[in-house]
Design goal:
There is one protein chain. This protein is globular. It contains 2 helices and 5 strands; from the N terminus they run E-E-H-H-E-E-E. The mean pLDDT is 90. It is an alpha+beta fold. The longest helix is centred in the middle third of the chain and has 5 residues.
């Protein structure tokens, strides 16, 4: 099963878990999202540690946010 990170402007916005069809096969990511959304996704299935929201991505490496410096990003709904 494939796990994706959707990255926008170098920051992980969401982690997308696999979705299974009734027959147990994984639903293709290209059938679940638009081409523009799929273009923002990076396969993170085999990474350890797994990236999470707010991690940064430079095109080849994920990095966890630094702790203890500044405040967490604010949601646009706050």
């Amino acid at each position: 099963m494939t796990i994706y990170a959707r990255v926008s402007d170098g920051v992980v916005q969401e982690i997308i878990q696999p979705l299974l069809q009734e027959d147990g096969n994984e639903w293709p990511i290209t059938d679940r999202f638009t081409a523009n959304q799929v273009a923002q996704m990076v396969d993170v299935t085999n990474l350890d540690p797994q990236p999470a929201c707010w991690w940064t991505y430079n095109g080849s490496t994920f990095r966890a946010p630094e702790t203890g410096t500044g405040s967490a990003p604010q949601s646009p709904l706050n």
